[in-house]
Amino acid sequence: MACSTASLAATLLALALMFQACLAGRRLTALVQEPAITMKYHKGALLTGRIAVNFVWYGNFSAPQRAAITDFVSSLSAAAQPEPSVATWFKTARKYYASSKVRFPALQLGSHVLDQSYSLGRRLTDRDLLKLAAKGGRSRAINVVLTADDVAVDGFCMSRCGTHGASPRSRSGRFAYVWVGNPASQCPGQCAWPFHQPVYGPQSAPLTPPNGDVGVDGMVISLASMIVGTVTNPFGNGFYQEGSADAPLEAATACAGVYGKGAYPGYAGSLLVDQTSGASFNANGANGRKYLVPALVDPDTSSCATLGN
């Protein structure tokens, strides 16, 4: 099972909310009371113990781009981050494990594979993504495949900004994987909102990205959503909202387009603003980084929780 981000050709509401989420639509919280969002545990295996996060960089990524993304993953468990922090945001995912009797995994940076020669070409299928993911660890791993802005992936921009899934069972072990594409040149108005004006729906001025790169900051949003989906639903039978198991609403994707308090279609919500750069963010990360991360369904409240609420 693989989970893909929001269908960009679906309803106007989903298009306006964007775009890093699985078939997600959100109600106007400013106008109506949100119903409870219940994430059910489907009794499947979860990740536990030490899990390496390995990176497969497909295509050309600059050193600053790689650093911004790598620092985000470090931020998930890094100590001494000013609040609100990425680490605090990620603790919401930990709450899901309380009902599973499984210890929450400890994510740690793993290996890096640079494929700057485009070994599989510049147009990739889902099968190609799995081949690339296999270049990371074969077991006890989340292998993150990141494709450059000149790489076309089936469904990218049309129906998804990223996916997560798992390799088939084998004697060499089973790994979870994530794919996220750089939308900078192909669809910034779809997969980099709110750092780019949306293609459809309510129009508002784009926000300034906290790492100075519309494509990479858009990738971080999708990566954040997919990592939480991987941790809470790694093999397709973990935590997700009742409905189709083929395209489940998960902890992050059930809160599509919500980043701050008071969010509604076309408005990301109340965010922090860096006084020096003017960039919008909602979480502090490792090495002085700032990021925008999506709201997560808090299992304690069955509602979308944003930092600072």
From TrEMBL:
Keywords: Apoplast, Secreted, Signal
GO cellular component, one term: apoplast
Principal cellular location given in the protein's record: secreted
Signal peptide: 1-24
Coiled-coil residues: none
Protein's cellular compartments: Secreted, Extracellular space, Apoplast
Family indicated by similarity: Belongs to the EXORDIUM family.
UniProt name for this protein: Uncharacterized protein
